[in-house]
Amino acid sequence: MMNCKQATRLVSQSQDRELSLPERIRLRFHLLMCSGCSNYNKQMSFIRKAMQKLRER
Ligand SMILES: [Zn+2]
C-alpha cells in the first residue's frame, strides 16, 4: 500500500508524464481509500484543465 507522500508525488508526476500501469493502479487504489489525496488529485486535474484552456486562447 503506498503512503500519502508517494501518492501525491505520483499525482504531480502524472501532470508531466504518463504513469505506468502498475503506478496508475496503485495510485487509483490509494485515492479510493484516502480522501485527502483524492481531493489533491481533483484539484490538480482541475488546475491542469484550466491551464489547457488558457493555452488554447
Ligand atoms: Zn493519501
- Give the terminus-to-terminus CA distance: 41 Å
> How many domains make up the 3D coordinates?
1
Run of helices and strands: HHH
Q: What percent strand? A: under 5%
Unreliable spans = none
Topology, pairings included?
Elements: H1 4-13, H2 21-33, H3 35-56
Bound molecules: zinc ion.
Zinc ion binds at residues 4, 7, 30, 34, 36-37.
List keywords for this structure.
mainly alpha
Question: Mind explaining what this structure looks like?
Answer:
Helix content is 79%, strand content 0%. With 57 residues, the chain is mostly helical. It has one domain (4-56). α1 (4-13) packs across α2 (21-33). The N and C termini lie far apart (41 Å). Bound molecules: zinc ion (ZN). Zinc ion (ZN) is lined by residues 4, 7, 30, 34, 36-37.
In short:
With about 55 residues, the protein is an all-alpha fold.
